[in-house]
Specification:
A hairpin with a 2-residue loop joins β3 and β4. Helices cover 27% and strands 30% of the residues. It has a four-stranded mixed β-sheet with strand order 1-2-4-3, covered by helices on one side. The chain has 84 residues and is α+β, with helices and mostly antiparallel strands. It has one domain: TusA-like domain (Translation Initiation Factor IF3), CATH 3.30.110.40. It has two helices and four strands, in the order βαβαββ.
Amino acid sequence: MPVSDEWPERDQWIDKRGTLCPAPVIALARAAKSCAVGEVVVVLADDPAAEFDIPAWCRMTRNTYIAAELQDVGSAYAVRINEG
């Protein structure tokens, strides 16, 4: 799965393509619990709600929404975990 070279190094991938809201955000929240501060998680999702849900989750949890990139099979959302 190509993601732009401008993105930071990814520590973890979560593939939630084929699932609907709230599955991508729930998977991100679960993964964040086991991440170290500063790790980057990339969520692959094709649910249109993820475009809004993932940045909103980041604001609510004080994690950093880095970027989204449209892929042929959905989108990739990069998040930096700020708190364990």
